[in-house]
Amino acid sequence: MQSAKFKSGRFFLGRLEYDSDVVKSITDFARSKKIKTGVFTLIGAVKSAKLACYNQDKKEYLVVELKKPREIVSCIGNISYHKGKPFAHAHVVLADERGSTRAGHLLGAQVFAAELHMQELIGPKLERVPDKLTGLALWKLRRG
Ligand code: ZN
Q1: How much is the pTM?
Q2: Which residues fall inside 5 Å of ion ligand 1, going by CB?
Q3: Across-strand partners of 91?
Q4: Helix (H, G, I), strand (E, B), or coil: what is residue 28?
């Protein structure tokens, strides 16, 4: 395990704007509040969404576009540096009107209504760097 130690910073509750993009809104919010590291959850509903699942053999994302309204059953994620700026990494579970779910890495989604809980974390700079083994941009941390 590689890890780093953080202290709790500010805690925010927020409501995303109608028709805004979930990932862009979270990213913009973090940057505007100077949140460099954090964890968040989000609940609400979206009009459409773009998800991705990582193919570990091909080391590439398979993109799935969902064009109908869905409930955000759960959206969790974190904020850390990527390419020099605070970056939101989010995963989501979305339910259709019958409660059937689709899930994955959240690339983007058009907000119908959404509530954000953002916890700022204070500590060392947490940065994503290319990882050869997985092909992903992963946190660079100390062992232990
Ligand atoms: Zn992901």
Answers
A1: 0.95
A2: 105
A3: 76, 105
A4: helix
| pLDDT tens digits, 17-48 | 999 999 999 999 999 999 999 999 999 999 99
Centroid of ligand 1 to alpha carbon of 82 (angstroms): 13
What is the distance in A from the centroid of ligand 1 to the CA of 129?
Answer: 14
Q: Which domains does the chain have, with CATH numbers?
A: 11-122 (3.30.1330.80)
Tokens of residue 121, six digits: 């974390």
Q: What are the contacts of 135-144 at 24+ separation with CB within 8 A?
A: 135/59, 135/60, 136/54, 137/82, 139/2, 139/80, 141/2, 141/3, 141/4, 142/2, 142/3, 142/4, 143/1, 143/2, 144/1, 144/2, 144/3
Kindly state the tokens that stand for 106: 């959240």
